[in-house]
Amino acid sequence: MGIFNFFSKEKKESLDKGLEKTKKSFLSKLTRTVVGKSRVDAEVLDNLEEVLISSDVGVETTLKIIDRIEAKVAKDKYVSTEELNGILKAEIANLLEENNSSSVDGIVIPEVENTPYVIMVVGVNGVGKTTTIGKLAHQFKSMGKKVVLGASDTFRAAAVDQLIIWADRVGVPIVQQGMNADPASVAFDTLQSAKAQNADVVIIDTAGRLHNKVNLMNELSKIKNVMDKIVPGAPHEVLLVLDGSTGQNAFEQAKQFSLATDINALAITKLDGTAKGGVVIGISDQMKIPVKYIGVGEGMNDLQLFDKVEFVDSLFN
């Protein structure tokens, strides 16, 4: 099917703006850690640990970062507080690099043996799942791809209605059977329809209940099995959508969902409305699942490919 470029570099401004609250909060806390200090000592490191944890980076990831800075301080004997920002920026960038986070090269529709390329979207209600699907559909369509949506979140009438609104807004076909329909049956019909239309991409919305993991697991397995029958290997991508503004709660959801199904990509939304953007760093590090997209605004193009270099750059500039 080919590899296509997705988002252009002009998104940097939108990224800077979207991370503004996180950046202000993070940098002002960082500045306070070094007040009256000329060198990085144990007290500065303690304060830095507090800053990272309170910025929703997460305890385990924070300790990893602190250990690395501590090792550098021990090795260099003297590290000035002026250097701290640069060192911290480098360590966060290294961490994201190591953890296979999505890169900027825009590879979004890899070559797959059987077309269409199928994305199954999971996540609890209210995280911005439907909006993410709509924005993705818009981006793919802008690239000249033929997109079909499938409304397999049939437990809430609102979920089906919202997806219909998005399909209409973006101008792409949708397959739906209304509320209470069998989700696997909707997925089956969607893939059959997409194949008949020679579609490039199919995006399937699924139910967002987590209170009963066994049910969720069974349901998602059923949907996957049905899709695999029509497009062998589908779904090619299982994308978990998380609300960044919930901080550590998003991380917990990521853990729970990864126990229920094989997730291979993450989208972290609503970063523009929160100071908890540090959660992207913790989730990238702890989950070992690449963060592929981040939502940094309301606009159609404000769902961006996660570029770790640009992200860290925006956080520290």
TrEMBL record:
* InterPro entries according to UniProt: AAA+_ATPase (IPR003593), P-loop_NTPase (IPR027417), Signal_recog_particl_SRP54_hlx (IPR013822), SR_rcpt_FtsY (IPR004390), SRP/SRP_N (IPR036225), SRP54_GTPase_dom (IPR000897), SRP54_N_sf (IPR042101)
What keywords sit in the KW lines? Cell membrane, Cytoplasm, GTP-binding, Hydrolase, Membrane, Nucleotide-binding, Receptor
Quickly give the catalysed reaction.
Answer: GTP + H2O = GDP + phosphate + H(+)
SUPFAM superfamilies, per this entry? Domain of the SRP/SRP receptor G-proteins (SSF47364), P-loop containing nucleoside triphosphate hydrolases (SSF52540)
PROSITE patterns, sorted: SRP54
Where is the SRP54-type proteins GTP-binding domain positioned along the sequence? 290-303
Which SMART domains does the record associate with it?
A: AAA (SM00382), SRP54 (SM00962), SRP54_N (SM00963)
- Give the EC number: 3.6.5.4
Supply one GO BP term: SRP-dependent cotranslational protein targeting to membrane
Q: Which GO terms describe its cellular component?
A: cytoplasm; plasma membrane
> Which residues of the sequence carry a binding annotation for GTP?
123-130, 205-209, 269-272
The UniProt entry lists membrane topology as: Peripheral membrane protein
- MF terms (GO), sorted A to Z: GTP binding; GTPase activity; signal recognition particle binding
Summarizing the function annotation, the protein's role is: Involved in targeting and insertion of nascent membrane proteins into the cytoplasmic membrane. Acts as a receptor for the complex formed by the signal recognition particle (SRP) and the ribosome-nascent chain (RNC).
Q: Tell me the subunit arrangement.
A: Part of the signal recognition particle protein translocation system, which is composed of SRP and FtsY.
Record's family?
A: Belongs to the GTP-binding SRP family. FtsY subfamily.
Q: What is this protein called?
A: Signal recognition particle receptor FtsY
Recorded source organism is: Putridiphycobacter roseus
From the broadest rank down, the organism's phylogenetic lineage runs: Bacteria, Pseudomonadati, Bacteroidota, Flavobacteriia, Flavobacteriales
Q: Point out the gene that encodes the protein.
A: ftsY
